[in-house]
Amino acid sequence: MTDRKPIRRSPRAPANSAPTLDDVARAAGVSTATVSRCLNAPDRVVPATREKVMQSVKALGYTPNFAARVMAAKRTHTIGAIIPTMENAIFARGLQAFQEALRNRGYTLLVSSSMYDPEVEKEQIRALVARGADGLLLIGHTREAQIYDYLEQQNMPVLVAWSYIEEARLPSVGFDNFGAMRALTEHILSLGHRRIGMISGLRAGNDRADRRIKGVQAALAQGGLDPAALMLRETPYEVESATLSITSLMGEPAPPTAVICGSDVLAVGALRGAQAMGIDVPGQLSITGFDDMELSRIVTPPLTTVHVPHREMGRSAAEELIEMVEGKRPGRSKRLDTYIVSRGTLTPPAG
Amino acid sequence: MTDRKPIRRSPRAPANSAPTLDDVARAAGVSTATVSRCLNAPDRVVPATREKVMQSVKALGYTPNFAARVMAAKRTHTIGAIIPTMENAIFARGLQAFQEALRNRGYTLLVSSSMYDPEVEKEQIRALVARGADGLLLIGHTREAQIYDYLEQQNMPVLVAWSYIEEARLPSVGFDNFGAMRALTEHILSLGHRRIGMISGLRAGNDRADRRIKGVQAALAQGGLDPAALMLRETPYEVESATLSITSLMGEPAPPTAVICGSDVLAVGALRGAQAMGIDVPGQLSITGFDDMELSRIVTPPLTTVHVPHREMGRSAAEELIEMVEGKRPGRSKRLDTYIVSRGTLTPPAG
């Protein structure tokens, strides 16, 4: 294609800069919109044009990365986040910090709630891409591979939060759900508890719930207990449903002396349910939460729980995602630490 | 302009249909994008073209309403909502219902949080318009007139929720914040309370907070008390800050026997603060909330509060906004009823 016309660099481009979308468009004799389309939706371009453009792309050494960088010049300064739910404030605090950090860098945040439904999340990913989001924040790593393929085709910078998994396909700024729950369970076992119950969120499609369960089981195995003996109830993250779960757990032939809850919301429901049954917490039953939401300090007694650094996670995720969007790097994962907060709902077992 | 060329109707348009964007574009000899620009961003079109297009618009009897309807054919099926905060779940329940109802009609919801900052809200309105939202949901009626002018120029359907004000510029699906608080205060006075305190959200830019204060004052005046004697503290909607406010109120020379809180979040903070001071609630001090969030049932004793029909409000707002977007009507206001929920924090004053 070099025989067609000389490749001119954009007059505005500094000598050493990467080729721009303009350069490719000029070289191919098409509009920049056509070049964009060839790179992002090649099916929508006639083959002859597509070939011409792709030859210019090649001749100029224009790569998808460069394309992403050039398209960044048309940035909308809008970041999308899709969270599983807006209720219960589980994601609220981290998201607020995420938004504040974005705003300090000139970005507006648009949030969508998938209601823990993978189909809804898929629609929302497409909607946010179609609305021109510069980058996306997703929660957790469990989703169909074709979604990741789609996001790659779109050159969309995507970061995961709330779940740090080193080997995952996307970079993540999060914490080790497995390790956090294993540490809590080890602590509970060290107090002498042997009959353990767990009220977990629904694990399907939710890697945080899944890994928290596995963390509990790992600690049980390590402590010489049978992981299969864990009295496990899975339920939506709602106060009312945890109240039902605790009733069911306490109806077991040998009921637990400690119930590990997958979130503070579930622990609050378990606490209320136990108290309604006349069970003294923690005298007769220990209950633990997860998240360290404001809720955990409001109930009586206040919850022993796992502190998740929500604000720090939101802030770090914003910084990392902006670095990705502005093309400075492909996205680096970051693991944040959690720790146990001892309040009023965990003591050694009675008798 | 009829002398320039005959006005042809689009071959696809049924005989009786309104003129389409295509019709205008053909008549003016420009692209549909240019017509759109003339209607939506006339500053970005050279005067000669603009005049040509506006003549076609006029000749075809094409009106901004028709324009809106035609542009609706390019609907993005995306609705934007801007809420003051994502923390504390105040707006979460209503928004979840709003989203579910939108989804049933094929619309995706994108949410932004203004952090109670009018400047941030303004940026977010522009971002959602720029991202192609089909319609917007805003909270409350207090904002600069120029924002309403801008939204009108953009032909953007906008509905307000959480605040029903009949004479307001935008249609609203909400409740009567003034009347709800007046009714609660009347009830408190009927129990014999005479020294009343109030912990309110910050009223600047927040018509809900402002009208709740005025509702309390109206009931005091009606009950023969001096509204100026209301012991009022304004504070952000946070548990911790309400804890400080109750300490300050109880330090008054003649402290209140009942403290009316502008939200459940504030009431929970007041309750914790009072209990930390060794004050028995409701034995020595009555406290009331507003919203009837889950929080109000979780604390001990559970809060007497005002029930706001959050889910119904979200659902109704979605239905109304979709009707507006789909061009069937300009938007009708709807007032939803609130009522007092008597739980454990309000009794007649001691002695």
From TrEMBL, chains A, B:
InterPro entries reported for this sequence: HTH_LacI, LacI/GalR-like_sensor, Lambda_DNA-bd_dom_sf, Peripla_BP_I
Ranges for domain HTH lacI-type: 19-73
Protein name, per record: LacI family DNA-binding transcriptional regulator
Any one GO molecular function term: DNA-binding transcription factor activity
Pfam families, per the entry: LacI, Peripla_BP_3
Keywords: DNA-binding, Transcription, Transcription regulation
